[in-house]
Amino acid sequence: MIKVIDDLLRQWAVWRLAPGSGLEGGSGSMLGALVENQGVLIRSTSGARCPLDRIADIELIYTTRLPADMRTLMRLHYVEQNLPDDYKWRAVKCSRAQFYRRLDLLHASIAELLVNRHAA
To answer: So which domain of life are we looking at (predicted)?
Structure first.
């Protein structure tokens, strides 16, 4: 598990569960913002990276770059935390050990996508 990615995914889940979660003060949605700006993600203008920028990166990766099985794993582990663990394992058709191995792969994939995204 990559601690930094785990923390970021936990922040993303909190943002996703917030009522009216949007990128700017809770108004609208990530998809709405992308449609409104013709697919261009408008970032904050502050000099430092805003936490919402990182959450926006994760949401974009979640919706456009991850395969369905990884999205399901991510949603089950981070967004639907109240579900029993054995339900999560059955939902992705794997054992507990395999679930956490896949979670490690998810973290590595997201880290790589974030690095590539910011290098471009």
So the answer is: Bacteria
Supply φ then ψ for residue 46, to 5 degrees: -65, 155
Q: What is the tens place of the pLDDT at every residue in 1-33?
A: 999 999 999 999 999 988 765 544 444 566 666
CA distance 82 to 28: 26
- Kindly report the pTM of this predicted structure: 0.74
d(CA 64, CA 107): 16
Q: pLDDT by residue (tens digit) across 92-108? A: 999 999 999 999 999 99
Which DSSP helix (H) or strand (E) runs through 4? helix 3-17
